[in-house]
Amino acid sequence: AQKITQTQPGMFVQEKEAVTLDCTYDTSDPSYGLFWYKQPSSGEMIFLIYQGSYDQQNATEGRYSLNFQKARKSANLVISASQLGDSAMYFCAMRGNYGQNFVFGPGTRLSVLP
Amino acid sequence: ETGVTQSPTHLIKTRGQQVTLRCSSQSGHNTVSWYQQALGQGPQFIFQYYREEENGRGNFPPRFSGLQFPNYSSELNVNALELDDSALYLCASSFIVVAGSSADTQYFGPGTRLTVL
Questions:
Q1: Which member of A44, A101, A107 has the closest CB to residue B111?
Q2: Read out DSSP for chain B?
Q3: Nearest CB neighbour to A100, from listed B41, B103, B111
Q4: Share of chain B above pLDDT 70, in %
Q5: A46 to chain B: which residues are within 8 Å by CB?
Q6: For range A78-83, the mean pLDDT
């Protein structure tokens, strides 16, 4: 079984600062994928970034980067130069090698302060 | 390229009724997954459809059922609604090569918010 843990229910960050959202995972699959999604108050889940378990480099997408530490089973999201529009819920998710579904964590609510 | 769409946006039903939610997958995708997201929680996997067949199911009772059509759009049906079925229902589309393989990134629709009174 797969499990995602996000230990920060809420985070605050000053506009233009960087912030790290924590995610740890548990799986016995030899190959898996890790994802981060953003969910604004409107409800839509917006894909941000993907990291494959065999990828050698940490994934980056614009202001988003994923700090992947395989031995520690962590996949933290780093948002650089925070903007007011980054205020939202952020979910870490994973899919296993043979699983059809994505397993989501409980989420972290990020609030960006002006 | 069109994204994932869902209808209706909001729905209010009473306990015991039946409901049908609809989803159109993103262009080029062949798989639709449905998730239930209760308030304050992460999404929970209901089931996935690939080539009109159920291709995996989460821990939901049989009164949750679905369909996928030849154009890859999908329906989620819930019978005998209960108060705890009140949630945001999210549809996600993706592309998989064969049944049983894992999907690449899933792209979500805007969701249908269901309230059961």
A1: A44
A2: ----EEE-SEEEE-TT--EEEEEEPPTT--EEEEEEE-TTS--EEEEEEETTEEEEE-S--TTEEEEE-TTS-EEEEE-S--GGG-EEEEEEEE--SSTTSPPS--EE---EEEEE-
A3: B103
A4: 92
A5: 108
A6: 97
